[in-house]
Amino acid sequence: MKAGVLEAIAPELQMVEEKIAKYCRVRSGYLGEFAHLTVNSIDRYLRPACVLLSARLFNQGGEKVVALASIIQLIFLAAKIHRDVPEKTSDNQAEPLDPRDGTQLPVLVGDYLYGRFFTTLCEGGILDFLKPLADIICKINEGSILRLKAEAAGDFSEKTMLSIIEQETASLLSGACRLSSILGQASAADQEALSAFGHNLGMAYGILQENGDRDLAGHFGALALAGLDRLKECASLQELRQVLDSLVGKQKPLARIMVG
Length: 260
What we know:
Elements: H1 10-23, E1 25-26, E2 29-30, H2 41-56, H3 63-84, H4 104-124, H5 130-153, H6 158-183, H7 188-209, H8 214-229, H9 235-248
Antiparallel strand pairs: 1-2
Helix pairs in contact: 1-3, 2-3, 2-6, 2-9, 3-4, 3-6, 5-6, 6-7, 7-8, 8-9
């Protein structure tokens, strides 16, 4: 059983994990044999938790919310696998002994997970979210293109870094929170507040992932908190604040988003 700041949604998080684990077992074997699926504790829970907690703000739960949380995590995993695929330097270069470090199998695994995103939309009855989610996938891939271009040019400026983070990380968290609020039939103002929270949370977390300026991460953390302060007070709102504090708070280490 999971504990800590996400204890209230532990059963739903378990449902998300079970759904993804089921998808990862195919006739050829476990997908983790063909691509690196292991992620740290933050990336394991952060995005699904934002979906589940955002929906709970409006007393929304059930199959559709779990489906959306699973989809958001599938998109994250697929994008991460594709982003981590190494470039081949030569046509004669042999594939590494570990297929997870190759180019062909990880790409296929990423494509498979994107395919599962579509089937989960259908199973969850949330096909209306196809366009906004597809738009997010485009933004993530645009960010990865920008990252490769910047690396090739040796452009490590703060401006470029923030543009990459905005597309690769913040776009998915912003969309996750907004779509969750739509499931909860939130007002336009509340949808915007949650979208702002997700965006700024993603910016703060992305900066820390890139070992960027912690003060700048704190700036975006403050903006994320301001987004939450625009919403009606409830238990789930406090839990979202705790998630934010676990990531960028000065008194807690980054890695302790969950305990247990």
